[in-house]
Each structure stands twice: as structure tokens, then as C-alpha cells.
Design a protein that fits this description.
The structure is a homodimer. By secondary structure, chain A is an alpha/beta fold. The first copy, chain A, has one domain: Rossmann fold, CATH 3.40.50. Helices cover about 40% and strands about 15% of the residues of chain A. Chain A has a five-stranded parallel sheet with strand order 3-2-1-4-5, with helices on both faces. The two termini of chain A are about 30 Å apart. The interface of A and B includes residues 72, 108, 142 and 143 of A.
Chain lengths: ~220, ~220
Amino acid sequence: MSTSSAVVAFSGGQDSTTALFWARQKFSKVVALSFDYGQRHKIELESAKKICKLYEIEHIVLPINTFNAIGGNSLTDNIAVSSEKDKTLPNSFVPGRNLIFLTYAAAWAWNRQIFDLVTGVGHTDYSGYPDCRQDTMDSLSQTISLGMDAKFKIHTPLMDLDKAQTVKLAQKLDTLKALAWSHTCYNGEFPPCGTCPACILRAQGFAQAQISDPLLHRDKYT
Amino acid sequence: MSTSSAVVAFSGGQDSTTALFWARQKFSKVVALSFDYGQRHKIELESAKKICKLYEIEHIVLPINTFNAIGGNSLTDNIAVSSEKDKTLPNSFVPGRNLIFLTYAAAWAWNRQIFDLVTGVGHTDYSGYPDCRQDTMDSLSQTISLGMDAKFKIHTPLMDLDKAQTVKLAQKLDTLKALAWSHTCYNGEFPPCGTCPACILRAQGFAQAQISDPLLHRDKYT
């Protein structure tokens, strides 16, 4: 285990929860950083809070009011989530979102002299989001290092894993109980709607890993 | 002149005003984008509004509440501006500020299919800010292009100019009248305090260019 600290960009979703548990094994101290960016569904932030409380992880929530002002996507505006495959990018793409999240995480970490950042993004099932690719993360890592005159490293433990492999990693890291409290559904529903692209992807991953999704029987994990 | 549009990151200060006028000559349409990031002094945003109104330039103000939440610098917190030269970075450095501004500008521009961004940053007089260097801007340009799957270009017309050369460029671009309404003073004062690092740098530039600062006799430019 490294003796240094890390800041994890933590949405309260399946992937960032797994990334958070990966970071807990790798770093001596972990801070989870969530963003209140005007999500249509506050249930995501509630999941993040619940998981950090359960595992006694320091949790910081930073407000972001700017994406709402920029607008034009289904995660902050009242637009139906697109699941069409014929578009270049789904309308759940918030331009610049991961770049902004990680740059803010770096700014927050810089003030505390922490230079290891962890994110749960992955290119395998990335729904066409260009800000989830390794080359984007490598470039961003260089940009924040140059821009803040520091040596940042962005860790992407899920980058090359498909959803089934992510589920298996979560099991290995003893994350299943935490995943019972994670949130995935784009429609902000619990129990999950089961029909949005995010729910379908999550269900496929658990099915392929032959593990039952703890979210569906949360009462067993209280 | 290019037939394309550009978005200019516009603070209402001397440099971004000059960059805005540079962009007006280069692009057929220019949008000025300002950020309300909890500056201690709203006079900067008022300058930006006044200049855009005078010259009939489309002006967008995006709110940013996150820097205040991150804290720890003299531009958003109630900390005296440091002018000490022995520190690595002055305490007016807001970590990630220019990276965030330009990434938001890119996100805003992306929604409107604009891919030319203009900023007034320069390394010559950059007060030790690492996010004002060309290598940072080059890396950021690559990061936003990868992250939004588009071909962005960040134009930095003042990058290699010292303050005197910037003043001469402003004169050449007929920007002096607009500069009468620009704001520079870190202490938010008008008439400017004359003693903060920003006021001193501005005064030196005009003195070296042998041009009288129009800000000091604004009444002549109404």
C-alpha cells in the first residue's frame, strides 16, 4: 500500500464505488469527492453519502452550478434520455463533465498537497463518451500537472474492464455490500427502472459475472 | 478574416479586452464569455458588461460557485493579496482557474459547434501562474479536443508579448477606448489603488509603451 493519499471522484454509482474501494486498498488515506452539479436526481448524491458514512470515508461535496447554465443535455435538463444508437453521441453526454470534475478534484487536492486522483471511467462500456478514454485521461493528467505546476497522476483502475469484469473486481475488493447502496438508473428510480441504458448495462454486467446485483436485495445488506 | 466564430474568455481586464479585439478582427463572429466565480470584486464583471455593450458584442456570463467552495486563495477568499516574491506561487493563484474557464468555454462552444477559443493569457508577465504558459494551453487544447471528440484550437494572441507590447497591440487594434472601461486592480478599486501587483504591472506597461492609460481619464472616452 502506498503511504500517500488519494482523492477519488465519487458519484455514488457502481463504477466509482468500485474505484473507491480499489483506492482504499492502494492508498493509506482516501478522500471521496462528489459533485452536486444540478443532477436531475439527487438519489445519486444520497447514495454517495450513504456509502461514505457506512465505510467511514471522508466525503466532500463540491457544488457546481455551471453545467446547468450551459445546458443542452439530459442529465441536467428535463430532456428524455436518448438510447438511440444512430447518433454520434448520446444526449446524456455532458460536454466537458469528466474534464471539469477531475480538474476541480485536482484543484481541491492541490490545496492539500495530494497528487493522486482516482476515477472509475472506462472505455469498454463508455456509451460513446470521449472523456472516458485513456488517451483523454493521459492528456488531462498532463494538463493539470502543467497548469498547477505539480506531478499529478490520474488512476483509472476500471479503464480496460468490461462491466462483468468490474463486477468481479468489486467482489474481489469486498465492495458488494457498498454496491447495494450505489445508484445507476438514469431515470433516478429505486428500485431501478430496468429499462434505461445505464440499468441495462449494469444488469448485463452482473448477469455475465453470474453474480446477483446486491442493489436488488438491499435489505440483505443493511 | 476567418468565416468561423470564436468564443473569447473575457474577464473585463486589460489582457482579455485586447484579446477580444484581436478576435473581432480575425473571426466573423465573436462571443465574449465571462465567469461569475465569486470574485471578491464585482467591478470586473461590470467592466466586461460595459465593454460588450459599448461594442455590441454578444456577452454570456456563466456562474461558477465551485472555486469559492474549494477556497484558499486571495481572489475569492478574504485574504490579503500577496506581493511577496519569495514564494513559489502568489496567493492570488487559483489552482485550475484558467483550465476550468477554458474547459467550460469549450463545453459552451461545443454545444454551438464553435471550436475556436481565444484567451488573453501570456507567459511574459504571468506572475508565476503556471496555467498561463503556452505548453499548458497546448496540452489543454489536446485534452478538450480528445474529451469532446472535436478539433478545438486555443488562440493565445498575447502569449509572447510583455505588457508594453500588449499596450501597443491594443492601440493598433483601436482598443484604447475599451481599455478605459477595463478593470485590473486586485483590490477592486476605481480609481485603481495603484499599489497592488496588478496595478503596478499595468502602469509599467503603459509607461514603457509611452501611452497614457485611458483608464485614468475615462471621462475623455465616454
